[in-house]
């Protein structure tokens, strides 16, 4: 099972520019979480801080008892081995074929024999649907295949936490759907804790168990997907609705007068439709995280807003008392 990641009071600046402050959230073990946010709000900086590649000024990121911010470098280095990182562009070496690219972490960080390396690489290539492309160079394959190769490489060291930076960037909607399914299938197969950073609304709507959003240097919210999808925070609604009107502008923040004018035109806004979460492909085991999430959500049931509870009912059925008592 994946490992829980506890983020507490995290603040990161570059010089005088504060990227975000006081970010607190927990990535539940084995569940899939998405961090949304307009461009430049610090999603990538957040991923790098979680894995200890960037050092926030304040706060902690606890993984397996190690603080990835203020812990000993040696402990951080060891704990980093629990992570698999999928970069935006796949980050493949252009001169190496896919097999060697995917084998790279095994050759670099383990003393495994070539026969064992071959077994692992072929297994991971099979998981992401790349068998048969071992000898291709990154330049000879599509963007979607490069992403999947990046994902396979993130998997070779059997990570318990997987961080994906914009798995959809540069992909068309069809390939984005494939990668969404791939991420859910992967979660069903290895039950790793996953954090996906994206501004893709399809991924946000169909993949995660939990969602959060960064905006204006703070974490707007983080919790079960239904909480964000039914949120009435203007910034969340604007983002999920893909609209021009709202607090997010080209320069990220709009002035008060523009906002007030827009507010007048938004009164007939329709509620967002909540798409069902993707299921693992036929033949794969069910996601173990689903049962754990159900128990977790039921434990917080009384504290959830009515709209989120209503949205959850279908997804949580069949369940015991608390859900059936709800008449919202
Ligand atoms: N190493 C760095 N040094 C200085 N500033 C940085 C550094 N890395 C990121 N930043 C700044 O931090 C801010 C957040 O960047 P980040 O790449 O995390 O945003 P993002 O939300 O991932 O954006 P996008 O969705 O466009 O990828 C930006 O203003 C960026 O210029």
From TrEMBL:
Q: Which UniProt keywords apply?
A: ATP-binding, Nucleotide-binding, Transport
The domain of life is: Bacteria
User: Any idea where the ABC transporter domain is?
Assistant: 5-241
Q: What protein is this chain from? A: Putative ABC transporter ATP-binding protein
InterPro entries in alphabetical order: AAA+_ATPase, ABC_transporter-like_ATP-bd, ABC_transporter-like_CS, P-loop_NTPase
Q: What PROSITE patterns does the annotation carry?
A: ABC_TRANSPORTER_1, ABC_TRANSPORTER_2
Protein's UniProt keywords contain Nucleotide-binding: yes
Species the sequence originates in: Actinacidiphila reveromycinica
Lineage at the top is:
Bacteria, Bacillati, Actinomycetota, Actinomycetes, Kitasatosporales
**Which SUPFAM superfamilies does the entry mention?**
P-loop containing nucleoside triphosphate hydrolases
Single annotated GO MF:
ATP binding
